[in-house]
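wait is this the right file?? whatever heres the structure
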């Protein structure tokens, strides 16, 4: 069984921040020392890094759950230690989606790109942070911010300069073995290639990468056969080389076969269909010179650069390679430069909603408010009062009042339950 894995689902959880400390300065000659509780340590992040030497997502099949370390709680005037982050290397070409929303989070398509998939929670503030002119001796501290949890789907779309497409048994694997050092499995029956193969081609002191993509069949754009699983790899290529068997063993028509694959490309994605194309008429050693000229004249009508070769024998390979190189260099010249290797998660504005709860009472829906409540020591009366004042400044209390909340009504925030009151 092949270990080529190109799609996995993974659970990530970053570390929770350490809690702040409640402390007061104590020294022999300082009888009235003030608050000096320190902050907790930050929770560890989970970071994805694009690595060009990794080829599959197989490691994530073996282990699909990752949790970073929590931050350490502060001790009086000693700040808590930050939790260790986790850095995970993924192949260049990995696209990450949020399973819950379906949103594409990042496309790690450059070697060295980094993306914080789950940010560690902030360490809670110690009571030193809450000193003010009206609150000179705060006896509460903040709990650490919860870490983030996210289930993602990671898809690997191979990054290659050129993708070889065509029907099964068109000779793509043979061509790849002829033009590069790649050693794909080759046999005289369809579907020899069931995983993509990459080969590095060297010519005129230049190199480029060619991907031998598994043979497509009619209905591939709808998921039939290998379908979407390998059409997506073609998305990442700059150039498509359509390999056509001009002497099919099943005696089908090469022109009809060509149209079949072209139609699947178009049905799958118009942008992919519009990619620059080279037609390779393969297995010229199996037809007469007259038959070859007749076939070439028919394919000339499509307007693409065309090369008649024999991958098995090695006929006319160099002109094809120079044409490939020329197309790759042209595509690179037209491509925009990408220089940002650190991708930051999108900041989504958090809206606060007040709705009627199914259990009766009211529910506050807001990630920010949930986070504030989770970081509050709810058994500490002063901490709860401080939370109430913060919610009032944010307009949450007024929103509850406008929604119809009355004194003593039950209010739910995440897993916490409060009684509504206007008074802090």
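ok assuming it is, sequence goes like this
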């Amino acid at each position: 069984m092949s270990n080529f894995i190109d799609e996995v689902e993974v659970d990530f959880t970053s570390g929770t921040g350490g809690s702040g400390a409640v402390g007061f300065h104590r020294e022999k000659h300082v009888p009235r020392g003030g608050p000096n509780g320190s902050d907790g340590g930050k929770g560890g992040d989970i970071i994805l890094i694009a690595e060009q030497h990794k080829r599959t997502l197989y490691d994530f099949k073996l282990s699909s759950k990752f949790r970073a370390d929590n931050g350490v709680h502060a001790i009086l005037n000693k700040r808590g230690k930050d939790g260790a982050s986790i850095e995970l290397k993924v192949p260049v070409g990995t696209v990450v989606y949020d399973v819950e929303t379906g949103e594409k989070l990042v496309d790690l398509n450059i070697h060295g790109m980094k993306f914080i998939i789950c940010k560690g929670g902030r360490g809670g503030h110690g009571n030193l942070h809450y000193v003010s002119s009206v609150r000179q001796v705060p006896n509460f501290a903040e709990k650490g911010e919860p870490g983030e949890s996210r289930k993602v789907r990671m898809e690997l779309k191979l990054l290659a300069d050129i993708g070889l497409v065509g029907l099964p048994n068109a000779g793509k694997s043979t061509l790849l073995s002829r033009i590069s050092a790649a050693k794909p499995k080759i046999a005289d029956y369809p579907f020899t290639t069931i995983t993509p193969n990459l080969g590095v081609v060297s010519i005129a002191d230049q190199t480029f990468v060619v991907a031998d993509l598994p043979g497509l069949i009619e209905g591939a754009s709808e998921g039939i056969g290998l379908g979407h699983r390998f059409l997506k790899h073609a998305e990442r290529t700059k150039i498509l080389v359509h390999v056509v068997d001009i002497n099919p063993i099943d005696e089908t028509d090469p022109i009809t076969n060509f149209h079949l694959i072209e139609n699947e490309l178009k049905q799958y994605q118009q942008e992919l269909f519009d990619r620059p194309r080279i037609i390779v008429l393969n297995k010229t050693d199996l037809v007469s010179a007259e038959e070859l000229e007749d076939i070439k004249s028919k394919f000339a009508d499509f307007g693409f650069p065309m090369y008649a070769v024999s991958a098995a024998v090695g006929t006319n390979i160099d002109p094809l390679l120079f044409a490939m190189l020329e197309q790759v260099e042209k595509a690179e010249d037209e491509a925009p430069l990408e220089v940002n290797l650190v991708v930051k998660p999108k900041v989504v504005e958090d809206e606060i909603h007040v709705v009627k709860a199914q259990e009766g009472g009211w529910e506050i829906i807001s990630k920010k408010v949930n986070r504030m409540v989770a970081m509050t020591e709810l058994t500490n009366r002063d901490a709860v009062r401080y939370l109430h004042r913060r919610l009032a400044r944010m307009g949450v209390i007024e929103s509850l009042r406008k929604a119809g909340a009355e004194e003593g009504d039950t209010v739910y925030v995440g897993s916490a339950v409060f009684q509504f009151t206007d008074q802090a």
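The first helix runs from residue 58 to 62. so i think its the right one actually
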